Amino acid sequence: MSRAYNLTVLFVEKLLPLIGVFNKKLKRFYFQRKNTVSRIEEWSKTKSNKPIAWFHCASLGEYEMIVPIIRHKLFFEKYETIITFFSESGYNHSKILYGTGSKFYLPIDSLSKMRRMVTCLNPSLFVLVKYELWFNLLKALEEQSIRRVLVNGNFINSHFVFGFFGKPYQQKLKNFERIYVLNESVHRNLVEHGFTNSQVLSDLRYTRVAMVAESNTSHELIERFVQNKTTLIIGSSWPHEEDLVLRYLLEVNPDIRVIIAPHDVSEPHILEIVQKFKNVGVSRISAAKDHKGEQVLILDTIGHLSSAYQYADIAFVGGAFGKGLHNVLEALAFGLPIITGPKISKFPEALELQNEGLLVSIQSYEQGFVQTLRSLIDDVDRRNQLKVDAKLFLKAKTGELDSFVKELL
Q1: What integer pLDDT is reported at residue 100 of this predicted model?
Q2: Which of 6, 122, 206, 266 gets the most CB atoms within 10 Å of its CB?
Q3: pLDDT digits (tens, 9 = 90+) for 286-322
């Protein structure tokens, strides 16, 4: 397997600059990584005297998972943090918080580059976030006896590590000091496959959203739009969710406010939403005005959603009618009852919230949506109780951080 893998990596590495002539995205991908190792070599000449903790994140979502760790006082006092990313979005939108730290793109997974990178960084601790597994990276770390842990692991039965081609990766993971997984089901999967280093740890995203909620800032325009009326927020909406809410407003016509935070904030899509909701009154937050006369407010700029949840009473989180459910935990952090589409089986946090009665997964407008939304709008006592239940649930999920960080020190 190792020889075939290395030949494939070499082929891709040689092919990328040629394909990049015709594809701007691949050209950018190649040049972002071309000089990573030499950049790290230059960085190593000026690094601090602190030991290095190296985190690898696929993208921004994985980075958000580890923010509670790198912000923890005990952790940033001891370690200098290095973060590597595979994706451009993670690299561009992440911030190295507290103390010293740097970020780099992860190079293409050739063994020679990974060995050079591990030698230059010389980390005391390597933390792999979730499950982005690069074979030569893991091999280079193992060769130099670097302490290795994995956090937020979610190795479901269908994960490739349990298949034929995943066996070499299994052995690399079995040699990790610890694999922290999301729940007992994942833990059992690993144990059944001969893992002895698995341990259940609450999803770090719970701690992260609690931190965001605690440090939340107010937004005067949204506050004036809501006007103390019952408010529904559609978080990371796709057209299907937008259409369901529009139909509800036109047919049931409740006296509520609706905040829409689209997944796609491109101008063409924003204009489509404006056109859809024109008959009920719609405005865009980017318009410099008071939004008092409209029933619908569109968050047409990036960065408002997490703070907007505080002004809502009910959340309808997008994506579960299509490819993937968006973040339901941001809504949970503000105690909102959550509605989603039907496709949540691959999202353990959504299933857990459903089991706790904090999330309702609906099939269609007629099958669940109208009844669920109407009951939540009408029953204020139920919403208040769900808010209390959500806060208690979140508190139970965020109590392990201190002891976990001490294990990493």
Answers
A1: 54
A2: 206
A3: 875 666 678 999 998 877 788 899 999 999 999 999 9
Task: Compute the distance between CA of residue 35 and CA of residue 41 in angstroms, rounded to an integer.
Answer: 10
Eight-class DSSP state of 35? T
Q: What would the DSSP string read from start to end of 335-381?
A: T--EEE-S--TT-HHHHHHHHTTSEEE--BTTTBHHHHHHHHHH-HH
| Distance separating alpha carbons of residues 22 and 43, to the nearest angstrom | 33
Instruction: Give the sign of the dihedral formed by CA 10, CA 13, CA 17, CA 22.
Output: positive
Q: Burial-class residue 64 by CB neighbours within 10 Å (0-12, 13-18, 19+).
A: buried
Q: Which residue ranges make up each domain of the chain?
A: 2-212+400-408, 217-396
CATH for 217-396?
Answer: 3.40.50.2000
pLDDT tens sequence across 36-92: 888 888 888 888 889 999 999 998 889 999 999 998 999 989 999 999 999 887 888
The secondary structure of residue 334, as a DSSP letter, is T
Q: Which is it for strands 148-153 and 178-181: parallel, antiparallel or unpaired? A: parallel
Reading the block at residue 142, the tokens are: 């193992």
Task: Tell me the mean pLDDT in the region 17-35.
Answer: 78
DSSP calls for 221-240: HHHHHHTTS-EEEEEEE-HH
pLDDT digits (tens, 9 = 90+) for 125-135: 999 999 889 99
Cβ neighbors of 42 (< 8 A, separation 6 or more) are none
Q: What is the pTM of this model?
A: 0.85
- Sign of the Cα torsion 19, 21, 24, 26 reads positive
Average pLDDT over residues 352-357: 95
Q: What is the mean pLDDT of residues 144-157?
A: 94
According to CATH, the topology of domain 2-212+400-408 is: Rossmann fold (3.40.50)
Distance CA 239, CA 225 (A): 23
Q: Which residue has the tokens 């943090």?
A: 81
Buried b (16+ CB within 10 A) or exposed e, 303-338: ebbbbbbbbbbbbbbbbbbeeebbbbbbbbbbbbbb
- Cβ-in-10-Å burial (0-12, 13-18, 19+) of 295 comes to buried
pLDDT of res. 333: 94
The residue count of the chain comes to: 409
Place of tokens 């509520």: 256
